[in-house]
Write a sequence for this structure.
């Protein structure tokens, strides 16, 4: 009997520079509005996510960004970590290195946001500092890392092994393609420089202009496309599907400063339908997280079949997303 297909919903939980580097006198970085929305619509971001997961009794892995400490200090992200822990959700480490440029040290960090392309000694220092912050907030060392904007290279994995972080989810080929061929992974698991990489699930869709790779994200994949893809993966014998989302995807904002916000009905509906789908077909699918699967995932590498879906889903998704972007109350 075929084992159930594992679905791991991963949530990159992060703040926003929000124009500060372009005009620091006018714009300060933003924290709570990016996670929750504004005071009137505060249940549309993280609260909606946690409420939905709780209603369907599912867990996800929240990759919590820790370098923001160098601008904001321990709060408010530490309180968000506590909120996630109270909701019994899995918490792992996320790093956007640009925040470290706010820190004062004898060797300041360069002001760019890529984990790839850095000297080995530098990326070791980045990961070490952020892992220490994570431990202070969460009360334990991280088991897994996700780099900002899914940018990675060999040095990241070498540094992870030195720091003692055994798992990663740093690759999503529909978002960024690493230079090294060994890192161009669509799905599955591969041990790289001592760390086990579990990439965001990437598939191929076709349209009138040909085929291209797309990574599985709540905000960019329509529900009919997502449902078709999960069943196609199931039929192909795929064992593990890593999905990507963010709290801010469930909020619509009028501008990059979150001046006005409302619920993103389309993305909220996609998450609810996904959770209901996992529960409805629980003989075929199961929600998992990094902590619960640590032993099994670290035990062996996994090669999975590549999945392609018909062009009709590409057309429908683009139309749906475009309307959602254009129409405030859609």
């Amino acid at each position: 009997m075929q084992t159930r297909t594992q679905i791991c919903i991963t949530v990159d939980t992060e703040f926003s520079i929000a124009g500060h580097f372009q005009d620091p006198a006018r714009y300060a970085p933003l924290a709570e509005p990016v996670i929750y929305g504004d005071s009137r619509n505060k249940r549309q971001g993280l609260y909606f996510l946690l409420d939905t997961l709780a209603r369907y009794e599912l867990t996800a892995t929240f990759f919590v960004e820790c370098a923001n400490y160098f601008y904001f200090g321990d709060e408010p992200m530490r309180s968000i970590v506590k909120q996630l822990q109270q909701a019994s959700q899995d918490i792992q480490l996320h790093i956007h290195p640009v925040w470290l440029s706010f820190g004062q040290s004898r060797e300041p960090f360069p002001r760019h946001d890529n984990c790839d392309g850095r000297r080995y000694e530098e990326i070791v220092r980045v990961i070490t500092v952020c892992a220490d912050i994570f431990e202070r907030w969460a009360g334990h060392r991280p088991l897994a890392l996700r780099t900002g904007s899914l940018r990675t290279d060999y040095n990241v994995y070498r540094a992870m092994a030195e720091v003692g972080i055994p798992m990663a989810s740093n690759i999503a080929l529909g978002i960024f393609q690493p230079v090294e061929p060994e890192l161009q992974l669509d799905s599955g698991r591969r041990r790289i420089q001592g760390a086990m990489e579990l990439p965001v699930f990437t598939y191929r869709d076709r349209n009138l202009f040909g085929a291209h790779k797309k990574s599985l994200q709540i905000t960019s994949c329509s529900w009919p496309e997502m449902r078709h893809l999960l069943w196609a993966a199931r039929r192909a014998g795929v064992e593990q599907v890593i999905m990507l989302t963010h709290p801010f995807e469930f909020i619509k904002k009028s501008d990059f400063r979150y001046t006005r916000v409302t619920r993103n009905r389309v993305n909220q509906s996609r998450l609810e339908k996904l959770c209901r789908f996992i529960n409805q077909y629980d003989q075929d699918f199961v929600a998992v997280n990094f902590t619960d699967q640590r032993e099994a995932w670290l035990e062996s590498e996994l090669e999975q079949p590549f999945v392609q879906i018909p062009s009709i889903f590409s057309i429908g998704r683009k139309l749906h997303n475009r309307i959602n972007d254009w129409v405030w109350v859609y």
Summary: The chain has a mean pLDDT of 92.
